[in-house]
Specification:
Blueprint (H helix, E strand, L loop, with lengths): L1 H29 L10 H9 L4 H40 L5 H13 L35 E2 L3 E4 L2 E4 H21 L17 H12 L22 E4 L3 H18 L3 E6 H8 L3 H5 L5 E3 L2 H12 L21 E7 L5 H14 L2 E5 L7 E4 L5 E2 L13 E2 L1 H9 L45 E4 L5 E4 L2 E3 L4 H12 L4 E2 H8 L9 H19 L4 E4 L2 E4 L4 E3 H14 L4 H10 L14 H22 L3 H14 L4 H13 L3 H18 L5 H4 L2 H4 L1
Parallel strand pairs: 4-8, 4-9, 5-6, 5-7, 7-8, 12-18
Antiparallel strand pairs: 1-2, 2-3, 3-11, 9-10, 12-13, 13-14, 15-17, 16-17
Helix pairs in contact: 1-3, 4-11, 5-6, 5-7, 7-12, 10-11, 13-15, 16-17, 17-18, 18-19, 19-20, 20-21
Length: about 675
């Protein structure tokens, strides 16, 4: 890069010299000096009587040319003085190593004996992907909305490396699995307070990954970014210091979710600097250790090295015997501790390979500069750009920490609402029939069928119809779950979360125009109506399997004849979850609300069923629909015990444990198993 840069700098210097020296030489050679002495009285009197002569005009133009040259020279001189002043100030601020720093450097060198000197690699250029969303190599701190790239995900309020974003999506999926596990189905009135959508930053990450999927790669964890930081601790200054600190906080906690050997220690002051007012309430629910001073940090670092986990909030006491690979990250405020405490912490961190990061100047070691995009700069390598770490503002960090934090023990909130403001009970449109809603295929004139239960697919005359744009397919499924329609704002907020609406109207219209035009060209029917700024599926031309499911539920709840057959029709009309093959963020609350209605039916029928064999069959159907629900397994285990099949009850218990373990829900298995299962 330097070999390419110096010729340009040389040419710029030559051009500047020519610009400064050329005009005076030309003027002096062709015209002479601007003034050849002061004008005489006769000359002044002659100029007043006839000001516009060839001589006076030539003199005026000459003076104007000299003034322009003087202004240019002044501007260049001012820029040179400013640059010299900045260089002088930087040299004055260049810190000399203190005795404590020298001690820390010596200890770090001894610990890394035989290893080459830490040098930050220059970040390689990354190709910009082509597609609906792209990300530049160096994202601007003012970028808004989500964007995905092989390198990372840009969201409103920050940037996440790709592997961190994927772990955010995995943690979000785990939130929904916990909600499924903890829900208690039955005939009693449902409590759907936990159906609230996930925070906006989380949904923006999910949407970016859904639009730009990459093949999963096996990994033992995620890169926290601390691997490039020096042993013995480092300070972070610059406009991105706090944003990088929040990124380290979130990244370390996500890594700890997957690998308990990654632990985070932080002080109250540092957590308050990072999270602001949310630090006190959110800090108690996070799997980290909050300390008061640096001596506590040094003790915990030593304790972790000897085999004890410093996870006060997670209450983990079962550390394995080998903890050599245990990664400890200590986040500090620049005002935490005095020099002796820093020295003890440096000794402990170097001895145990812990990483200490101070938000501000770090007297016990080097201080690096963090820019607003998350790039680190070593003070000795000013021209090299170091690793780029995750950067988050307070809002984005709080959103992401919400899916990591333990559940809030506060009272349940009122019943949640779906994105369109309606309740979680999905309404169905009036079917094109005169009698009871029919479950058989539609009339021949309704040649469009939209399947949304399972893999979404539009059919024309029974044949699959290719919806070319993923956004168009998403619009069809969204409108199927909102039969009363949705306006432009609701559609754009759901499909492109995190992006400003003003930039999405064109995308929405393009997707709508494409699907409406292609369907109309194929069969002459209108699939989507647009009335009063609301889009909705045309119920006269298209039927939806979800609407048939709702019709079956309505029929079963109102009929008084052969109710068992009616409820069985409901179960038959639910082949799979809503858009089971898709990961669109807005699906979560609606998908879970539909699933709960079905397992409620299973438990209600099982409760009223006098035959124990039929009871177990109904509960088994519910488990097939939701294999993570603890209450269903509890009832099924009791049914098997009542039938005297204790071996099957034990087998069910073991299978459920394995299911929870594979899903990452094995942290609280014992708590969620009933006494009957635990026996």
């Amino acid at each position: 890069m330097d070999e390419v840069r110096w010729p340009r700098q040389l040419m710029s210097l030559l051009f500047l010299l020519a610009l400064l020296a050329g005009p005076p030489l030309v003027l002096l050679t062709l015209i002479g000096p601007p003034m050849k002495g002061w004008p005489s009285t006769a000359q002044v009197r002659a100029w007043v009587q006839q000001p516009l002569t060839e001589q006076t005009l030539t003199a005026a133009l000459t003076i104007a040319a000299w003034l322009v040259w003087l202004m240019l020279t002044y501007t260049v001189a001012v820029r040179i003085l400013i640059r010299l002043r900045e260089t002088s100030a930087w040299l004055r601020r260049l810190p000399l190593p203190t005795p404590l720093q020298a001690t820390a450097s010596g200890m770090a060198g001894a610990a890394a004996f035989g290893v080459t000197t830490n040098a930050l690699p220059t970040a390689p250029p990354h190709p910009v992907s082509s597609g609906p969303v792209t990300l530049q190599d160096k994202a601007s701190p003012d970028d808004h909305g989500e964007a995905a790239h092989d390198d990372g995900i840009g969201v409103s309020g920050g940037w996440l490396p790709r592997d961190v974003a994927e772990q955010v999506a995995a943690a979000a999926a785990l939130v929904w699995l916990r909600r499924r596990r903890d829900y208690q189905p039955g005939p009693a009135s449902r409590n759907d307070a936990d159906l609230a959508p996930l925070p906006p930053t989380v949904t923006a990450v999910q949407a970016a990954l859904a639009d730009n999927p990459t093949p999963p790669t096996p990994t033992d964890g995620i890169t926290t970014g601390v691997e490039a930081l020096p042993a013995g601790g480092v300070g972070l200054t610059g406009p991105g210091a706090l944003s990088v600190g929040r990124g380290l906080l979130v990244t370390a906690l996500l890594a700890g979710q997957r690998h308990p050997k990654t632990s985070l220690i932080t002080t109250k002051a540092a957590l308050a600097s990072l999270l602001g007012p949310a630090a006190e309430t959110l800090g108690r629910r996070l799997p980290l250790t909050i300390i008061d001073n640096l001596d506590e940090a040094a003790q915990l670092v030593h304790a972790a090295h000897q085999g004890a986990y410093p996870h006060a909030n997670t209450q983990r006491q079962d550390a394995p015997s080998g903890t050599a690979s245990h990664r400890r990250i200590v986040l500090l405020d620049e005002h935490d501790g005095d020099e002796p405490q820093m020295k003890r912490l440096v000794e402990a961190s170097v001895a145990t390979a812990a990483v200490v990061v101070a938000l501000g100047q770090w007297p016990a070691g080097p201080t690096w500069h963090a820019d607003s995009a998350g790039n680190l700069h070593h003070p000795r390598h000013t021209h090299a750009t170091g690793p780029r770490l995750c950067v988050l503002d307070q809002m984005a960090a709080t959103d992401l920490l919400a899916i990591i934090a333990l559940p809030d023990p506060s009272p349940a909130a009122p019943r949640a609402s779906l994105p369109d403001g309606g309740s979680t009970d999905l309404r169905l449109p009036r079917q094109v029939t005169r009698r009871e809603p029919r479950l058989q295929p539609s009339k021949p004139r309704q040649r469009l069928h939209l399947r949304v239960l399972g893999d979404p697919q539009l059919f024309v005359d029974g044949e699959p119809f290719a919806v070319r744009r993923s956004a168009a397919l998403q619009i069809l499924v969204y409108l199927a779950t909102h039969p009363t329609g949705a306006n432009t704002a609701q559609l754009t907020d759901a499909i492109w979360p995190g992006l400003p609406r003003r930039s999405l109207t064109g995308r929405l219209y393009t997707a709508l125009s494409d699907v409406r035009g292609s369907v109309r060209a194929a069969c002459g029917l209108h699939v989507i109506d647009h009335v009063d700024d609301r889009y909705r599926l045309n119920p006269a031309h298209v039927d939806v399997d979800l609407w048939h499911l709702n019709a079956a539920i309505h029929h079963a709840t109102t009929t008084h004849i052969n109710t068992h057959t009616a409820w069985q029709a409901v179960l038959d009309a639910y082949p799979a979850d809503l858009a089971a093959t898709r990961t669109w963020p807005w699906l979560g609350p609606i998908r879970e609300a539909i699933r709960r209605r079905i397992i409620d039916i299973c438990v209600s029928l099982a409760t009223a069923e006098p035959d124990s064999h039929h009871t177990f069959q109904l509960l088994q159907a519910g488990i097939r629909i939701d294999p993570y629900n603890a209450d269903l397994h509890k009832h099924a285990s009791r049914a098997l015990t009542t039938l005297g099949d204790h071996e099957a009850a034990t087998e069910l218990q073991d299978h459920y444990r394995q299911t929870l373990t594979r899903a990452g829900l094995d942290d609280t298995i014992t708590h969620h198993l009933s006494p009957t299962i635990q026996q």
